[in-house]
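Lab meeting minutes (informal)
Scribe: AK
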Amino acid sequence: MSFHQCPNCQEVIKYKTKLTSVFFGYRPIKCESCGTVYEVDEKFRFILSLYTVLIPILIAYMLSAMMGVLHTRWSQVLIVLVFGSAGVFYAATKVRYRKSLQQPMEEKDEKKAK
C-alpha cells in the first residue's frame, strides 16, 4: 500500500510531489497543511533503485546480447534512459513513506524567541 494521504490531517499527497521526491534522490515530503515531514522508508530505497537502475541495464544487455537488436552504445544508452524513466514513474506510485524522526520545530511566540 502506497502513501496517498497524510495520516495526521488526511491531506491528499499529489503524485507530482512523490515523483519529485523520488526523482531527486528520495527527498523528504512535507505536508502542506500540517507541516509534518515524511521520508522514504529505508528498505524501499534499495528495492526501488532496482526499478530505476538495475532492471533497465539488464534489459538493454539482454536485448543487445540475445536478439542483436542494439548494435551501438547510443541505442543501449537510449534504452536504459527510457526504461529508467519508466522505473522512476513506477517507483513514485509504490514508494512508502514514514514519519521523519526529525520534525521541524514550531515557533510558539516570536517575542519569546527574541
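Next up, CB showed the second protein from the same session:
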Amino acid sequence: MLHKVYDIWDNMIEKIQSVIFRHEKKNVALDDSEFFDHVHRILVRRWNKSNNPLHCMAHSLNPKYYGQTWLAGGTGRVPPNRDPEISKNREICLGRLYSDSHRLKIINNEFPTFSGGRNDSIQAAMARDEEDPVNWWLCFGTSTPNLQQLALKLLSQWSTYSQIHNIKRNKLTIKRAEDFAYVHSNLRLLSCTSNDY
C-alpha cells in the first residue's frame, strides 16, 4: 500500500479539479477557478506535510508507473525516474537507507536497468501494466537483485492495522486491533495541531 500513496494523492487532486470545474461549468484546459486554486493550495500544503521520501521511493519502484498503460492514462504523466520531485526524494531516501557508499552505488547502478526496462522481456514489459508490483519483482527482478530486495521490502508495506495486528505475533482480537488503529489515527491527527508539528 505504501507504493500507492503518491499516486492516490495525485489522482485525488485531478478528480477534485474535475468536479469543481464541472460544477462551475468551466473548461479545465482553458479557464481558471479561484475556488479550485484555494482548494489546491490546501491540498498541496497537506501533501507537503505528509509526503516523505519513502513514499516517493516506493512509488518509483512500482513497475506499473513505467508501463505504457499508466503513462498513456493521463496528460502529463511521466515515469517516476523523469519526475524531479520523485527523483530528488528517491535520492534522499536511498542516502538514508544506505550509509555505505559502495552499497548505494550498486543500487544506483541497478536503478536505470529497472526504470529503463533494459532487461525486460516482452512478458516482463506487459506484466508491468497488469501484475501486482510484489509479484512483478519476484518474477522479473532478478537482473537487479539488490534493488529487488529493497523493492520487496518497501512494496510489501501495508496499513497501520496490519502493523498492529499480526495473528502470529499476538493474540489481539479483531475489535481490539481496530480500536488501536482508531486511536493511532486520532493521535496522529491531534499531533498535527501542536506547535511542534
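CB comment: The first helix runs from residue 5 to 23.
No objections, moving on.
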